[in-house]
Specification:
The chain is of the alpha/beta class. Strands 2-1-3-4-5 form a five-stranded parallel sheet, sandwiched between helices. Helix 2 packs parallel to helix 3 and helix 5 crosses helix 6.
Amino acid sequence: MVDKQRILIVDDDANIAELISLYLMKECYETKIVGDGESALREFPSFKPNLVLLDLMLPGIDGYQVCRELRTVSQVPIIMLSAKGEIFDKVLGLELGADDYMIKPLRLQGAGGPGKGRPAPLPGRFLRRLLCAEAAGRVCGISGSRRKPDQLFRAL
């Protein structure tokens, strides 16, 4: 039997974290939710995630610092999830080692899609990001070259 890919969800909003976790478990991922930076750094070595979904605005150690510290010990893919949508925030996150940056709120359901001028609901958009970004390539075994920040911005 194939081991499930593990995703560490770091978000202090329990509702968002639980919704993301439920969706990912439905897609056959194993997830673990932590609500702050200290817990993320403590759980990371034992959980051994294949991917980290990291909120930036966390109590205690913020997401930027968590990313810095994870990068000193691992090259695990990190996707930042944040309400901070300014270019500066995206650039900083990518410069600190994040592989991608998604802006909240993430739509969880409802009509819409790129053809109607609205973003696709979370399941489609989220899985495309997981499958298409180099971060996801390392998680899911899809080959590809490491994306540069300017390539990631085009996808944002």
